[in-house]
Hints:
Helices cover 62% and strands 0% of the residues. By secondary structure, the chain is mostly helical.
Amino acid sequence: GAPYSDPGNPADLFFSVSYWQNGGGPNLKTRLARLSPAFFEWRGDLGGPLWIALALLATLVIPGPYTGFQWPLIERSVPILWLVAAGVVLCAARVARASWPLALLLVWSGVRGMYHHFPLRTLQVLLLFLMAALLYAAARELSDKWARRVAWALLAGIGFEFFLGGLNTMKIYPWMGWISPEHLAKPMGMLTHPNYWGSFMALGLPLTWALLGIPAAALVFGLILLTISGGPVISAAIGALVMAWPLFGARLRLAVMAVGAGSIAGVMTLHEWRLSGRREVWAVALPEIMRWPILGQGLGQWRQWADDYNRAAGKFFVTLQAH
């Protein structure tokens, strides 16, 4: 970008277009480096993990401890098990180049799913996790040129949802056939629910700040507030603080924290501190959590527990989505 010049006025810093124009001053790169995920990269080659995968596959020739047979016999599920295990190891090695903690979490999730014999819900969540991890690894290796292209493409979608959300606040709902009365005048766009819309926009807020600057991010934040939904507002407040931390000094950081905390408190007061019945659900889930405080119930097993609990209670009390 252009060489940095001291704006002299804090307002000039506030209205700087974006990170790309050195809005944070000469020390911006240094402060951003402290937040770099490069610390979590693994720079080794694939040789070790590849040999581990081959060793797992080689165990196919080893018979299991079966009884009633006088000759080696391979259980038919064993090849599938080791193929899955080998695939997880190789995928984890790929992900580890971008983030070894994420790779370890992927391996642990696979082992935990194997312990429960890979129920369908576990496989669905594990596949989603794997795709997200591989996308993250690919994103980390994009050149700056392609990263900006992807960012602007995503920003186009954010802009479209922002436009629709603005129309929704005026009770205009293009291409939507039915609106729940409780969500009237709340932004929801093509995602059909304020919670989903707000969560998507909260993910887009840091990107909006980075490419279009603080005023555009403030508009997105303001529209998220109109969802009166706790999760999106909390996410947006944290995202704004992450973006502000390397740019601003201590006073402005505290100001961003205060705005975020005040927004969360206001939305939760308008919505309800009761959390839409979540506390009651957490209360009945607590005994199960305490049974397995470390290992947990298993990846994606909330729905199975909810079905079992509702069936035993004879009523629909626990939602099937993990809240």
